[in-house]
Amino acid sequence: FHRQYTGSGGIDAERVGNDPLAYMAAIEPFHDNVISVYVKSTKNSLKTIQGKRYILDVYGYPNENGEGPAHYIVCGPSPNKDVYFYKTNDLTHGLFAKWKVSDDAAARIAIADFDYDNVLSFATISYSVPGYYRSANPTINVFYNRLAQRKLRTNKEIQGIKQNHDLLFKVPRPNQALKHQTVAFITINGIILSLDIVPPYSSRHANNTTYIKVLSSRIMWIDSSTELHQLVNHSCAFLCKKKSISPLAIHSDNNRIKTGSEEAL
């Protein structure tokens, strides 16, 4: 096939450690089918940057118009309309792990911390262009990152103190908690009781076996039983009487609860 396009259909730079431009990933050429990365040599200076090109994948062949299946790439497992996630294993030798994460077509990919857990996730919008290619069911989808291993802080934000026969907890002031933290303090008949802090605009795992008593602020989750998948707000004042110990059953579609502008205890 004659290749009538040049350049790149999508390119992005990626930070590794303290290097903001450790490598670049690209689809080559424009409207084509080659996924490649350019890795800098460790001996480079700012004025003489040189890199080595590694081909990660070749998807199919160009059509009669010289167009390949690959359209968009960003850096963060039907070959013509899937989304794949590549993760660096050995940058020096151009080795990457690969996961297919979606069977749907993606015209654009956006990177953001969509569920406020301090880890980047990504969202896609289906390819649907009249007269060119139209997805059967065009949608916007969010794919949450559950691969990252977050580093734990060495200094505990929650501190437990036993005073005579009472157990007291010292917690951060509102809006000063830096990350989700949990302290388990008693197990009764196989049920673990813990005190949790969820910082503002953050989330934590909570499936249908989790029961929560909100002591401070408000938590939210998505519940498909509500009309139009509306966001449902829940707090201790919503279902629990004052000074009661009634727990709140969690029925979250994505097994996550999240906070708004204030931390939750």
UniProtKB/TrEMBL annotation:
<protein>
    <submittedName>
        <fullName>Uncharacterized protein</fullName>
    </submittedName>
</protein>
<dbReference type="InterPro" id="IPR054583">
    <property type="entry name" value="Beta-prop_AUDH"/>
</dbReference>
<dbReference type="Pfam" id="PF18637">
    <property type="entry name" value="AUDH_Cupin"/>
</dbReference>
<feature type="domain" description="Aldos-2-ulose dehydratase/isomerase (AUDH) Cupin">
    <location>
        <begin position="157"/>
        <end position="232"/>
    </location>
</feature>
<dbReference type="InterPro" id="IPR040887">
    <property type="entry name" value="AUDH_Cupin"/>
</dbReference>
<feature type="domain" description="Aldos-2-ulose dehydratase beta-propeller">
    <location>
        <begin position="4"/>
        <end position="40"/>
    </location>
</feature>
<dbReference type="Pfam" id="PF22301">
    <property type="entry name" value="AUDH_beta_propeller"/>
</dbReference>
